[in-house]
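agent> Task received from the user: take the single chain below, predict its 3D structure, and emit structure tokens. No templates, no multimer pairing.
agent> Plan: (1) validate residues, (2) run structure prediction, (3) serialize to tokens, (4) report one or two observations.
agent> Step 1 OK, no nonstandard residues flagged.
tool_call: predict_structure(input=
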Amino acid sequence: MGGIVTHYGAQYNGQPLGCGKGTYASADTSIIAVGPARNREWPCGTLISVCGPTGCILTVRQDSCPGCGPYHADLSEAGIARVCGEGVGLCKVELQVMREVRLPVPGQSDPSHEDYQQAASQ
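)
tool_result: status=success, residues=122
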């Protein structure tokens, strides 16, 4: 589905994430926050592929974004740089839930890189 992404801001480093475990880190490309309209459809732990003009990343829903609409998500600074380009604050993306797979939220029991690859390839 088409949508847009923005990013948190470095001032949130170290702040707790809304899914109950872990803290925000600007360098963590796996973090994605979604708005209230997607809370039920994309619960905490949902694996979501995000593709934009400069690349794709796999993310895990780890937080909520109260100001985000149904086609808007927040990424970390590293995530948006990889997907949209360095220094870009907003861009159009394709969001895709990966087989409706839900992985543990990092900090609860961190999924390994192989877990991400296996889920994405199935």
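agent> Step 4: summary for the user.
Residues 2-102 form a domain with the Barwin-like endoglucanases fold (CATH 2.40.40.10).
agent> Done.
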